[in-house]
Amino acid sequence: MENVTQIVDFTKYKNVFCDSQEALQWAYKKGLPKNALIRTSSPALLHSKDSCVRHVEESWSSERIKKFQSGMLDFSKEIFDSLIVIEGVTRAMAIGASQDALRLHLFLYKTGCLNKNDLIEERLFISVDGFGGRYGNNMNSPWDEILIKNPHFKKITYSLNNSNWEPQSVKSVSLFDRIRLAGLDTIIYRLAIKISKFIPQSLSKGDILITSENELIIEAAANLFKKGYSIKSLKYQEKGNHVLFEELNIKQHLLPIIKRRVGDWVDPSLIDICSNHMLSKIYSNALLTKKYYFSWKSILHKVHNNTKVLSNSPAGIQGNVLYDVCKQKKIPVIGVLHGSTHEINKLIAVRSAFFDASLTDFFLTHTDIAKKVQQNNPFSIGSGHAIGLPSRTLRMRDYKRKISYNAPILYASTNLYRGCLVPPYTDEDTDYGGFVREYNLASSVFSKIPHELCYKTYPLENRRFPDEDPIEGYINRSENLNLIKEKVDMRYLLSSFKVIITSGATSTLGWAVMTEKPLIFINWARHNPLSDDAYESLNKGIFLFDGDSENFHNKLLSFLSKSIEDIFVEWNEKEHSRIKMIEKYFSKNTKKIGSSASDIIENMHV
Questions:
Q1: Strands 123-129, 519-523: pairing kind
Q2: What is residue 173's predicted lDDT score, i.e. its pLDDT?
Q3: Could you tell me which of 392, 385, 377 has the C-alpha nearest to residue 337?
Q4: pTM of the shown model
Q5: Which of 172 and 604 is assigned the larger pLDDT?
Q6: Which residues contact 383 (CB under 8 A, 6 or more apart)?
Q7: What angle do CA 187, 513, 468 make, to 5 degrees?
Q8: How confident is the model at residue 437 (pLDDT cuts 50, 70, 90)?
Q9: In whole angstroms, how far apart are CA 577 and each of 15, 537, 542, 564, 586?
Q10: Does residue 268 have a pLDDT over 90?
Q11: Residue among 283, 278, 290, 284 nearest 238 (CA)
Q12: Domains in the chain, ordered, with CATH?
């Protein structure tokens, strides 16, 4: 679908940025030469093997990305340290700048794809407009911002035709099935949110304010409601739109730090453009922080004298300021971690500025190791308590949902493309490199085993690329492989399978482990790898395969060619080691989790 408000002479362009097959075919019809160089990050376009298609990220080898990652944490800490000592700069501003410094590595990464010729020669950028999910359209690289000074640069926007893409949801799961997994505490929590609006402060032991929820927050809050606390949703509402704020004296402190970092990764001709963009974003968000102080103070003007705030993933400008305001009002802010990641992920420390311990007085984890990782991060201000996984995760062993997947094996992919949303925090492959890894696994192993296998793509809330992931096309063409088209969280699917395969040290692993079904984990050094200690423990408790080892595909193919019964026999032999593994890396406790969490929260004071 053409955007008719734009006029472009396609015939004169020989060098084009485009991430959409649909948009590219439209451009060809409009006169774009078939021999024009197409520079893209799109796995679909790159997999087409068109000789005119080139990987725009080709300069980003795995080794270069690894080196790029290695400096992220120090850079974010340097930004924080330079600001926190300046008069008028609050902690929320400083930690927010550190978070922005990390997020802006996406812009730095994209700038690192270009060269000086891109600033002076004719370039065409075919961007796309279309439904992108929860956070809108994020399918376009910032080429127009990076090449803003090129007088021969032209951007045109193509409106995508209606597609079948949709984000993850639970609409295919019956209310009965959701309730059975969620448990009674979830029902109590939902009722508590509604009822608490009408409970006078004089009749309540205190207010528990929820900024964002997860499974453990729901269970803890339900138990606090039983004890006599009111449970209320705490949502940001803007107040005082016309308040004026003074400028901040921070640019001269930040620019040299940013330029040093940028200079290591981009062409000299692009250093100023990239540095000034990053500085502008960090500065504008720091200035914007002042508005949030005014609004949060107004929202929390009259609260119960025994108020506590519970938050899931508090990092961000709202959460940063909320902590500062609550600190002034002596309201404890309590972070509650979601999923098993900090315990097992080797590269997670790069995201320290986003950790709950960096933004809360107290935080709840599932294990002692996660507590230690959080508390030892360089921005930490919080004290941790290890509780265990929420009850709904522990219920995975007994949960059953009637769905029509007849294959005995499930592969739950954790290959989440970064697209234009995030920099390479914990993955050392490009998006296309991630596709190649998945494609080789499917074609060299899964398509050759004597069993039916269902392939589950990673759940998306936000669309990364306009085109369908080419791995889906391969799965659909394979005789023994079935693509799960149901866009639903993996937790609702696991009960249908006998054997589970996954990879990457993410929260996906925790859900799979707690089913107590035979679990095969693939560890790749460049894709959310396990920490060394976790690797040793998981190697004893589950079936662990080193994806970088010699003959990896043949080893995994041989194992998956065994009968399901034989796999179960070997699985049962690991039971003793698995009990220790679960306690250390997944759930310190397995009973009365919500009740225990509520007891700890009740006694948290500042």
A1: unpaired
A2: 84
A3: 385
A4: 0.94
A5: 604
A6: 361, 362, 363, 375
A7: 85
A8: very high
A9: 57, 8, 9, 21, 13
A10: yes
A11: 290
A12: 175-241+289-393+590-602 (3.40.50), 396-585 (3.40.50.2000)
